[in-house]
Records
---
Amino acid sequence: MDYAFILGTHPAWSVAEIDAVLGEYDLFWENERVLIKKDANIKAESLIKQLGGTLKIAEIEAFAPVSAPVADLAKQCARILIEKGSRGEGKLVFGISDQGIGGGFNAEKLGLTIKKELKGMDVSSRLVTSRDKELSSVVVGQNKLITKGAELIFFRHDNDLYIARTLAVQPYKDLSRRDFGRPVRDDHSGMLPPKLAQMLINCAGQKDHDGLLLDPFCGSGTIITEAMLLGYKNLVGTDLSEKAIKDSRVNAEWTRELYGLDTRAKFHIKNATRLAQFFKANSVDTIVTEPYLGPQRGLNDIEAVKAELETLYDAALDNFYQILKPGGRIAMVWPVFFGKEFLRPSLDKWKQVSALPPKFRHSPWAKLTERHTLLYHREGQRVWREMIILEK
Ligand SMILES: C[S@@+](CC[C@H](N)C(=O)[O-])C[C@H]1O[C@@H](n2cnc3c(N)ncnc32)[C@H](O)[C@@H]1O
């Protein structure tokens, strides 16, 4: 079967993550927010829980010429809804997402024509619409489109109009609970959103779930708890701050109980610049971390902040090199101030790995930096995040 992945706000991060999890084989990225995986057999419901950067996974059902008349498209869609849509009790509920079709495509007109078509087939239906062209995961979830009908997603690929049926949407309630409902949040030193933590862990690419994965600046434990949920068993978080270690333990225990996991992560108070005294040489499989990113306020003297961070990162990286196994990787966030002031610690010993495979690096949506890294930021943010992947 062929699948469409609807990508999040930072599509290149999402593509890097899917590539790391599924492999680049038979992946096609020809539409900014849609990645296609051909000839696969995917368990969408479990996969979407593992991908922080994917909003929806849909099965491609049909394609048509972009210029196809609405009446023809409506017939095709009605058939898909009847054959493949879920039928609960009552009306068949359906919605349409326009994923960047543009031109004269009118989702509402098409929706109403499908409704008429269904009526002609004796099927009563309810059309779900929203102000946006694309229905959000929340709208799809709240209207039970997947269990009581279907969401049809339209996008362009190979100069055709593709029609896909949504199989699973991002577990937005769960993600929000893990972000805002956890017992301890550390808004002072900053928290990595769980989605970003998932992407970072996935991009590190550790396939062996029993190998040792370390977060040496673990803060309140986001990366370690997300790694627990992704199935990693051998997890250690360290941090200089006693409070951070206490918070991490509380959050990890909460996650363990909430999801009925049997993994127990270990946490220790340690300075990241002296880790080689604690871990044996060549003993750690992977490091995934968002270190100290500089002061949250008062970014007046950027040069001084950069110099301080480069000294910290140089010393930490030196220790990481000693404790990592040969071939072991680091996936790390570095700050970029105001979107242009990059950190430049010494990377002499390391092999730097591009987040995207060669076939996607020149895509118009890749937006890789000069050093082949990807950036993440929200409107108005002064400190952007850069994803760095290094290999020993
Ligand atoms: C940005 S926070 C990490 C946030 C974490 N990713 C989370 O989501 O909770 C940075 C952490 O680095 C820790 N830190 C700062 N300097 C350190 C050092 N030299 N060694 C270890 N941890 C350090 C701070 O105590 C803080 O908890």
---
Amino acid sequence: MKKLLMHACCAPCFVYIEDELRKKGLRNEDGSYEKVDYTACFYNPNIHPKVEYERRKEAFIKFCNIKDVKNIIIDEYELNKFLKDVVEQVGEKKKYKVRCEYCYYTRLKKVFEYAKENNFDIVSTTLTISPYQNHEIIKQVGKKLQEEYGIEFRYIDYTENFRQGQKMARELDIYMQKYCGCVFSIDAGKWVY
Ligand code: SF4
């Protein structure tokens, strides 16, 4: 059985996906499913403020405990690095065209590094259940990292299951945030990018 490392951006986005992984397996491009040995990985170093980072990390731990999901937490909080890199690397003619591209790349790169060191076959991310994320950029970033690390990146569009996942998270009393994560995405509780 293949080993999947699923990057979890937060617990609510993982709830539906975990349910599907457990009951059916991992979705293939042709719509079929394959059973996988999955582990969830929390690495989201730019959630602002720190107290919110801790809240989301605790929600992830709570959910993994409820469902008895194998998990790892890369517990690194890097606000200063994130802000410095956004200024230096994001913008016209810089390495990244938009902030979220940089954010996806750095988060997923760390997950790929862990996957490589620990012999995982596939990497995926719960970011792609959210209709608020930029799926094209996530796909491009994932495929770039697939080339870099020689590990498959599985892009799956779970957006049709987003509301169902939120409902399941509420039923389990899992904390649900009101913005994506970084300081730039906080705007009076609205989702902004
Ligand atoms: S809005 Fe979300 S995806 Fe974009 S940079 Fe901020 S935390 Fe990352």
